[in-house]
Fold this sequence. Notes:
Layout: E1 14-19, H1 30-39, E2 42-48, H2 52-64, E3 68-72, H3 85-91, E4 97-106, H4 114-131, E5 135-140, H5 143-153, E6 157-159, H6 166-174, E7 178-181, H7 192-199, E8 205-207, H8 229-240, H9 244-259
Parallel strand pairs: 1-2, 2-3, 3-4, 4-5, 5-6, 6-7, 7-8
The chain binds nickel (II) ion.
Nickel (II) ion binds near residues 20, 102 and 210.
Amino acid sequence: MIYPDELKLFKNLIIDTHAHYDDEKFDGIRDELLCSLNKNGVDKIVTCAVDGFSAEKTLALAEKYDFVYAAVGIHPGNLQSGTTVEEIRVLSSHEKCVAIGEIGLDYYWTSDNRKEQLKFFEDQIILANELDLPIIVHDRDAHADTLEILKHYKPQGVLHCFSGSTETAMGIIKLGMYIGVGGIVTFKNAKKLPEVIKAIPKDRLLLETDCPYLAPEPYRGKLCHSGYIALTAQKVAEILGTKRDEVLYQTRENAKNLFGF
Ligand code: NI
């Protein structure tokens, strides 16, 4: 019911490097959806927490499903949750935890607490470096501060849902990090992103959804899930003048290299 026929793949080529399957929008359909994804082309999913409560739900999903992995962290929009970085350290010791995330800076939704955001971001990068885990970075309207901090700490990881310039992308890549591309690339107003995708080395590109949000065209505005990555890959293939499955294969290898699964 949930999985459109045209998106079914013959092989499991999709790795969704950024999802939020703990989100309440999946309540009632979560198990059926996850099982159908794994039968129809989705090889692996990294589902990202936004605070301690969400991390516990995220780890429970990773325990339940072989193909689901977890990232644990405190999102800049969830600092009021009261979750501490020490709590994230404890949660991150779970064997299915492959990254610290989603962490970062958001000056679009919450700009009145920049100092606090910077402190949480830096402390969680220090934790990730100590544990030798990659980070999953959220950067909304905070490109300069994000890049400066990443340059300073040199973590491994990915800048998720990339929305910056080619210049910023190249700065991220120079640090050895990856660029995460999601459904936005299929939107008509995505002007800069195709240029970024053409400019960056192909071994630095990851695909993601950020589901339940940001479903690609023609499903924009609907409940998003990892199967829609087939559409994002199709668009990236058009931009690069290659085939969809080549993009899926390359980005799957890239995700394996970063997350070590
Ligand atoms: Ni996210």
